[in-house]
Amino acid sequence: MVKFTLYILYISKLIQQINKQIKMQKIIIIGSGPSAWTAAIYSGRAQLNPIVFTGAMSAENQAKNILPMGQLSMTTEIENFPGFPPTGEVGRLLATAITPDRIMMLPPHDEGQHGISGPELVELMRAQAVACGANVIEDDIVDVDFTGTAGAVRKLTSGSGKVYETQTVIVATGARANWLGLDSETKFKNRGVSACAVCDGALPRFRNKEIAVIGGGDSAVEEANYLAKFASKVYLIHRRDKLRASRAMEKRALEHPKIEILWNRVPTEVLGDDKTGVAGLILKSTLGYPDLELPVVGMFVAIGHTPNSHFLKGKLNIDEKGFVIKPIPFRTNTSVEGVFTAGDVADSHYRQAITAAATGAMSAIDAERYLASLE
Ligand SMILES: Cc1cc2nc3c(=O)[nH]c(=O)nc-3n(C[C@H](O)[C@H](O)[C@H](O)COP(=O)(O)OP(=O)(O)OC[C@H]3O[C@@H](n4cnc5c(N)ncnc54)[C@H](O)[C@@H]3O)c2cc1C
User: Fold this and answer.
1) Is residue 241 part of a domain?
2) Is residue 11 part of a domain?
3) Residue 318 contacts residue 335 (beta carbons within 8 Å)
4) Which atom of ligand 1 has the smallest separation from the CA of 77?
5) What one-character-per-residue DSSP string does 262-288 give?
6) How far apart (Å, rounded) are the C-alpha atoms in residues 155 and 144?
7) Is residue 79's pLDDT more than 90?
8) What is the atom index within ligand 1 of the atom nearest the CA of 35?
9) Measuring CA to CA, which residue among 123, 124, 130, 153 is closest to residue 50?
């Protein structure tokens, strides 16, 4: 009887183990933005049967602003992705290319008003990846085992506790913009509040109007300079009395006729209404002076980005801000052989849908060549 019980225990343990360890994969892609879907399209077409982990729609992820389908799912018009000019046939394309259950989740498409929205663009990328053979799992990767040298099996643990074994991995987990954390900031996102000057600066809402940029580093000054092409005036609002930006960048800001720096001020409220969006900011003084009401139609928050790389700490070389380090210029290799990276998680500089997609393609080609070299 004891022998029988031990036997049953042994068998159930074995079944648990088998359930946990899914069959060895050639490639697993972690992420669900343009870089992940492009890597999936390329590796699917190369017959590598990619699995894509999109991330889970959990309360924890939502609180951190890490949503499945990436940053594009949080925006409205995309005017700078090649192939999607702001007129045309997009509605028909969407209706035929995306499955009805997923198209239900998209905001209505107003053909003629704009070409394509961020959520539509990334859904089309997903549909194309699935058509190319990608298997999609709507879960997080919460842990990785990257021990061993070239050819070693890489192990990924999903949120449900399953362990996936794979020969190559593409880390395409993106990044998220840092926000001030004001309720009124959230309320006016995409209606005058933005974290991307290159993406939104040219929109009609900001043209020849006064706007504000929040921050004091190089990227804040870069954004202010870029926005000054369109706006009538750009206020650069910084909480200290000195910029963190390099001397050269600081000089550019100080000498620009359209940029005015407001020192020792922090926004405490975004003003506006539901119809027109942002109409002003309340700025608190860090030196105890009275509040200032600034009548601007836009607020660009430029206080940095946080890469979604927390689960890679100690497993892969990442820099002090969390960006994955690419040791070989113009390649997508990481510090671990067989592990590649793409998109904003490894890019603190460009942070665009098209650059993410481009590095996604590169990472799939690099992974495919690495697999060929193992054979
Ligand atoms: C409001 C806004 C507007 C923008 N507008 C434009 C624009 O007009 N034009 C433009 O070119 N760019 C725009 N961008 C920038 C563009 O969206 C990004 O550069 C691009 O989405 C980056 O793509 P990515 O593939 O690196 O990953 P992301 O889009 O950042 O997506 C990565 C996703 O991976 C998933 N993930 C993260 N961690 C895990 C994990 N552990 N396991 C599984 N999945 C995980 C998450 O779901 C995450 O969202 C905008 C960005 C924002 C925020």
Assistant:
1) yes
2) no
3) no
4) 8
5) E-SEEEEEEEEETTTEEEEEEEEETTS
6) 6
7) no
8) 25
9) 130
Active site residue 196: yes
Instruction: Please give the residue range of the domain that contains residue 104.
Output: 17-176+306-374
- Whether residue 170 sits in one domain with residue 196: no
Q: Which of 23, 24, 26, 22 is nearest to 338 (CA)?
A: 26
Give the CATH number of the domain where residue 355 resides.
3.50.50.60
Task: Tell me which residue of 73, 118, 36 sits closest to 342, measured CA to CA.
Answer: 36
- Assess whether 287 and 196 both reside in one domain: yes
Q: What is the pLDDT of residues 109-132, one digit of tens each?
A: 877 767 888 999 999 999 999 999
Six-digit token pair at 309?
């790389």
Distance of alpha carbon 346 from alpha carbon 123, whole angstroms: 23
Using a 6 Å cutoff on CB, does residue 35 contact ligand 1?
Answer: yes
Structure tokens at 34: 């343009």
219 within a domain of the structure (yes/no): yes
Q: Measure the CA–CA gap between 105 and 8, rounded to whole angstroms.
A: 46
Domains in the chain: how many in total? 2
Whether residue 342 is found in the same domain as residue 284: no
Which pLDDT tens digit goes with each residue over 179-210? Answer: 999 999 999 998 999 998 988 898 899 999 99
Query: Which residue among 42, 52, 72, 79 has the greatest number of ligand 1 atoms within 8 angstroms of its CB, and so is best to mutate?
Result: 72
Nearest to 171 by CA among 359, 373, 355: 359
Q: Is residue 10 part of a domain?
A: no
Residues 213 and 356 occupy one common structural domain: no
Alpha-helical segments (H) within the chain: 2-20, 34-45, 59-64, 90-97, 100-103, 118-131, 183-187, 197-200, 218-227, 247-255, 353-374
Domain shared by 266 and 336, yes or no: no
**Same domain membership, residue 195 and residue 183:** yes
Do 151 and 202 belong together in one domain? no
Q: Residues 114, 145: one domain?
A: yes
State how beta strands 21-30 and 51-53 pair. Answer: parallel
352 Cβ below 6 A of ligand 1: yes
HSE-up of residue 368 (Cα within 13 Å, Cβ side): 18
Q: Which residue type is seen at 350? A: Y
Give the active site residue among 143, 145, 196, 218: 196
User: What is the pLDDT, as a whole number, of residue 14?
Assistant: 57
- Which of 284, 303, 322 marks a domain boundary? 303
Q: 319 in helix, strand or coil?
A: coil
